[in-house]
Amino acid sequence: MSHVPVMLGEVLDVIQPRNGAHYIDGTFGGGGYSRALLDAAQCSVLGIDRDPDAIARGQNLVTQYAGRLTLVQGEFSQMDSLFTGRSDGVVLDLGVSSFQFDEAERGFSFREDGPLDMRMSKSGTSAADVVNTSDEKTLIQIIGGLGEEQQARRVARAIIAARPFSRTKELADVVSHALGPAALRFPIHPATRTFQALRIYVNDELGELERGLEAAERVLKAGGRLAVVAFHSLEDRIVKRFLNERSSAAPLASRHMPSARPKHPQTFQLLGSRPRTPSPAEIAQNPRARSAKLRAAEKLAAAA
């Protein structure tokens, strides 16, 4: 399956590509956003992805857009060190690439059996390492906190009783059995939340997002725009909090309210008071878009 960029029209509407500008696609993936930006104007794009396969797949686009597209393997939290200068726009799509989900050997999906891996960069601790070595308390924290699985204790105990694991299907079957027949009545697979939690943990996705938003704040020039597409509540909560803090007067800590968050300098102006969501037509065409939320903001001149 080819990767379908989510809310592409809405992202372009936010970024408003123009000739001579420079943009950063912090989650290059299948190259959908980069291609659209390059087609929309005579601009240049830096595409970043931690997955070496994504960089390899994108080399044909580098050739096609000679001199206008540069690809770098790395984390988007490093964008301000990977790009020297100031950017006119940053795009972040926080979803897992369709290529990663659809390639069983990457171990992201429970629908096709493969090695229990889930590492986007193919280095570091794998999902198998986590489930095979973590104690019950740690597994409960991961599955309950990052997967928002209400039966995290039950799942963690089942994992410990059945380990070691090396394959995705093994883990998915144990989780499904632990949650029982009642879980089959829900619209999502019983293992969805556990697999989501492990993927987020293995790749430190929430930490990467927090660091990436701060990097985007540093690299954007005055009038530069940030567009972030999030796919679940944990991500969206981080994006919403960051942009709200940077775009409005946060409460000042005082002796009357010593626990209040210190005021952050205003660096962004929100582009819309509410997140944009996919159209019904897009959801019908691409069901993976159904949970997407797009939040956007413009860098203020005083903060540049």
Polypeptide structure, described:
This protein has helices spanning 8-15, 32-40, 52-57, 59-64, 79-82, 98-102, 127-133, 136-146, 152-162, 168-179, 192-202, 205-219, 233-247, 280-285, and strands at 22-25, 44-49, 69-73, 87-93, 220-230, 268-270, 293-299. The chain has 304 residues and is of the alpha/beta class. The protein has two domains: 8-99 and 205-303, Vaccinia Virus protein VP39 (Rossmann fold, 3-Layer(aba) Sandwich); 122-202, Orthogonal Bundle (DNA polymerase, domain 1). Helix 2 (32-40) links the parallel strand 1 (22-25) and strand 2 (44-49). It is globular and about 60 Å long.
In short:
α8 (136-146) packs across α9, α9 (152-162) crosses α10 and α12 (205-219) packs parallel to α13. The protein has helices at residues 8-15, 32-40, 52-57, 59-64, 79-82, 98-102, 127-133, 136-146, 152-162, 168-179, 192-202, 205-219, 233-247, 280-285, and strands at residues 22-25, 44-49, 69-73, 87-93, 220-230, 268-270, 293-299.
Global geometry: globular
Distance between the termini: 41 Å
Name the CATH homologous superfamily of the largest domain: Vaccinia Virus protein VP39
- Order of SSEs, N→C? HEHEHHEHEHHHHHHHEHEHE
Give the C-level CATH assignment of the largest domain: Alpha Beta
Helices, by number, come to: 14
What order do the strands of the largest sheet run in, or round the barrel if closed?
A: 3-2-1-4-5-7-6
Low-confidence runs of at least 5 consecutive residues = none
